């Protein structure tokens, strides 16, 4: 599912409605994003999952809906469909859904987010990227007098009860990663300049540098970096040595904030260990 929005106001109002969900028969009717996130989480725990197992896990969801979601995930390159209706995760580079990311390495991400937020000063304009670690920064920024620009569609609920001034870029929403991206997004970002930018990524290594599975994500991050006085990439140590499809930066080109020192960080020569 891809959604195109023409401007930031449309993006904010739609996504607030999108996240709210609806109620049916006393149970929350899951939106496609939520269903597919649960399906990918199930596949992360099991090498192969049958159609019956999906239906049992997703209580109240019809078999036809599960089949449709599986076809969508296959088209996105995240899974491989098997004979008989089963599925397995596609090996190699794929974008882990943001809800799945948010439950991994929680303490490490929290420390990184807290440290990164401490780098932000009152009066600054800050870019916050998509990704679960960057999203965790918001609660540590809520009392600061700053302006935020973001392409993280999950930020809206986090802004409740804060005084933060936030602009949500327009563009296409990648429902799996809750990231706003594409031609419209890049056009908006090219006209903006930031004191600091905090970026997410999926891996870093000596060969692939700092990387992401999506070419459009890579381009977006590069634009933001060029338009920032200082840019940081928030990467927990589990991503050390991992390669994904699209190189965003050379290793060492942008400062990495991580939870502990690794051989790959040492090789980069440009990193901070969050404490």
Folded structure, characterized:
Helix content is 36%, strand content 24%. The model is unreliable at 21-29 (pLDDT under 50). The radius of gyration is 19 Å and the shape is globular. The protein has 275 residues and is an alpha/beta fold. The protein starts with a strand and ends with a strand. The relative contact order is 0.13. The protein has two domains: 23-91, Arc Repressor Mutant, subunit A, CATH 1.10.10; 99-273, Rossmann fold (3-Layer(aba) Sandwich). It has eleven helices and 17 strands. The strands form five sheets. It has a seven-stranded parallel β-sheet with strand order 8-7-6-11-14-16-17. Strands 1-9-10 form a three-stranded antiparallel β-sheet. Helix 2 (32-45) packs across helix 4 and helix 9 (183-190) packs parallel to helix 10 (215-226). Strand 9 (171-174) and strand 10 form a beta hairpin.
Give the domain tally: 2
CATH topology of the largest domain: Rossmann fold
Q: Could you describe the largest sheet, including whether it forms a barrel?
A: 7 strands, parallel
Strand order of the largest sheet: 8-7-6-11-14-16-17
Strand content: 15-25%
By secondary-structure content and strand pairing, the structural class works out as alpha/beta
Report mean pLDDT, rounded to a whole number: 85
CATH class of the largest domain: Alpha Beta
Along the chain, the helix and strand elements come as EHEEHHHEEHHEHHEEEEHEEEHEEEHE
Low-confidence stretches: 21-29
Q: What is the correct CATH architecture of the largest domain?
A: 3-Layer(aba) Sandwich
- Helix content, binned percent: 25-40%
Please tally the β strands and state the result. Answer: 17
**Helical run tally:** 11
The value of Rg in angstroms is 19 Å
Assign an overall shape: globular
Distance between the termini: 39 Å
């Amino acid at each position: 599912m891809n959604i195109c929005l023409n401007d930031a106001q449309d993006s904010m109002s739609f996504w607030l409605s999108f996240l709210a969900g609806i109620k049916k028969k006393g149970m929350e009717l899951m939106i496609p994003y939520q269903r597919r996130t649960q399906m990918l989480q199930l596949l992360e725990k099991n090498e192969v999952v049958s159609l019956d197992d999906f239906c049992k896990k997703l209580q109240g969801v019809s078999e036809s809906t599960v089949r449709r979601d599986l076809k969508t995930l296959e088209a996105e390159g995240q899974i491989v469909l098997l004979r008989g209706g089963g599925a397995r995760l596609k090996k190699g580079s794929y974008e882990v859904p943001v809800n799945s990311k948010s439950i991994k390495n929680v303490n490490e991400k929290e420390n990184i987010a807290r440290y990164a937020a401490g780098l932000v000063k009152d009066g600054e304009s800050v870019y916050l990227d998509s990704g679960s670690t960057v999203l965790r920064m918001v609660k540590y920024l809520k009392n600061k007098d700053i302006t935020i620009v973001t392409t993280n569609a999950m930020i809206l609920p986090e802004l409740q009860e804060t005084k933060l001034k936030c602009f949500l870029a327009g563009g296409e929403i990648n429902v799996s990663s809750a990231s706003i991206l594409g031609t419209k997004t890049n056009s908006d970002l090219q006209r903006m300049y930031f004191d600091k930018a905090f970026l997410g990524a999926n891996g870093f290594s000596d060969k692939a540098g700092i990387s992401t599975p999506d070419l459009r994500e890579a381009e977006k991050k590069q634009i933001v970096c060029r338009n920032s006085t200082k840019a940081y990439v928030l990467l927990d140590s589990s991503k050390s040595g991992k390669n994904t499809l699209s190189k965003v930066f050379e290793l060492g080109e942008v400062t990495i904030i991580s939870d502990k020192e690794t051989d790959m960080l040492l090789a980069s020569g440009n990193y901070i260990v969050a404490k």
